[in-house]
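Field: COMPLEX_INPUT
Field: COMPONENT_COUNT = two
Field: RESIDUE_TOTAL = 495
Field: MODE = joint
Values follow.
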Amino acid sequence: MPGSSHGSAHADTLPAKMRAATGESVFNCYQCGKCTAGCPLAQEMDYAPNQIVRLLQLGFPELEEEALKAFSIWLCLTCETCGARCPKEVDLPRIMEYLRQESLRRGLVHPKAKDILAFHEAFLDTIRRNGRLHEVGLISQYKLKTLHLLQDVLSAPALLLRGKLKLLPHKIEGQDAISRIFERTTDHKEE
Amino acid sequence: MKVGFFPGCSLEGSSREYNESLLAIAPALGLELAEVPDWNCCGATAAHSLNHKLALALPARILALAERAGITELLVPCSACFSRLAATREQLTRDDALRGEIARIIELPFTARTKVLNVLEVLALCVKDGFAQQVRRPFAHKVACYYGCYLTRPKSIGTCARAEDPQEMDEMMKLVGAEPLDWAFKVECCGAGLSVSRTSSVAELSGRIVADAAARGAEAIIVACPMCHTNLDLRRSAIERHRQAKYALPVLYLSQVIGLALGLGERELGLHRHAVPVRLASPAPAGGEPAARPTATVSQEQEN
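Field: COMPLEX_OUTPUT
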C-alpha cells in the first residue's frame, strides 16, 4: 500500500520511505504510550518504543538518524505485544523491522547490538549453506564472529548429553535453489 | 484426519522431544502427518530482522513445496515457524504482484492456498469432548499453560479467541485430567531469539514467567513452542543465577502431556531430554485427598 505520506515535498524523509515500503505511517500514532507500557524490554532500551516513533514524527533528519542508531530497534523481540494493543493499530513490529534493515544498510547499527547482529548473520549463513539450521555450525560461526570463544552459548554439554546436537549438517536437496534465493534477495543497495 | 507436516529445524535438533512426542501421539489421535518433502528453514527471527524479502521467500518455498505435494492444510508445531509461515501467506495472499515476484525468486509456482495450522488448532480437533474415554493415566497436576507470543499475536494470524487470556490449551489440559491455573504470564514473551546473543534479557523475561508459575503452585509449565521451551528449560540455570533462587518446576510440551495421559512411556515422549528433570508426584487417587506437595515446587534459597 504505497502512500504519499504527508505531502510530496517530504517524499525523501524516512517516514515517507517507510510508508512507501511498508504501508505503515508513524503519523497515525498519538503517543499514548501503550506500546511502551507492554514492551517486555522497554526498560533495557535507550529509546522506548513510543519515543522511537516520536523521533520519526518530528521531521528532523538528525532525529531520524537517531532512531536508526538506537539500540532499541535491535532489542525488539517482535513479540507483537505493542501491535496487538495499539489503539491506532500501528504495526510497530513492522516499523522496527524496517528500521533495522535501514540501519544495517546505512551502516548505523548501534555498537551494543553487535552480538545480536552477529547471531542473526551466523544463523542466515548456516541456512544459506545447508538449507536448514545446523545448531553446531551456527554456534561456531557466532563464536568466530563475536570472539566469545569460551562462552558456552547453548549449554552444549547438556544438549549433547541428551542427544540433541547433530555434529554434521543435513543438506537439503534444493540447496542450490536456497543459495539462489539468498542471491536474489540480499543485494540491497543504497538508492 | 490427514494433514501436512512441517516440523522445522528445532524439532530436528534441540527440541527433538517435541517431534518425538507429536509423532508418538498422532496414531491414537487419528492424525496422519505427511511431511513436506525437502523443506527448508523458515528464516526465523534472523531473516525477519535483516531482510524482508528473504523473510518472505524462505517460508514461501515451504508453502510452495506443500502445495506441490497436494497438501491443503499444514500443521506447523513450532510457534515461531507458524508465525513466519502464516504471516507470509497472509501478506502474499493480499499482494498479487509481490506473490508473483516471490514465486520467481523461489522458482516454484505458488498460489498461497495451503492453509497453515498451529498445534493448538490441530490438537483441539482431536482432544475434545469424547477424549476422556481415551485417557488411561489422568495427568492430575496443577499446570500453568504458557502460550507465549505467536499463538495469540498478531491479530492477523493469532488463532486464540482471547488474545490476552487464551483458554484453548487450558481446555485441553482439563480433558487430560489436569488443573490449569489462572496466572499472569500466559502471553508474555520469553525472550525468544535473544537466547544466545543476549542471555541476560532472556533470564529476566523467562525468569518472571517461571517465578510466577511457581508462586501460583504450578507443578509444571506447559508449552507449545520450542523457543519457549529452550528459554524456560535449557536456560533454567541462567534464570536461577539471575533470580538467586532455585526452581524445580519442569516444562513439558503439550504433546508430551497428552502422551502421558494416553499411557505412553516417558522415554517414548522424550521426557529424559529436558534440562529440568520431570519428576511429578503421583497423582492423588480418584476421589481422595489431594496429593501432598509434589517435588516440583519452588525452593526459594535466598532473597525473594
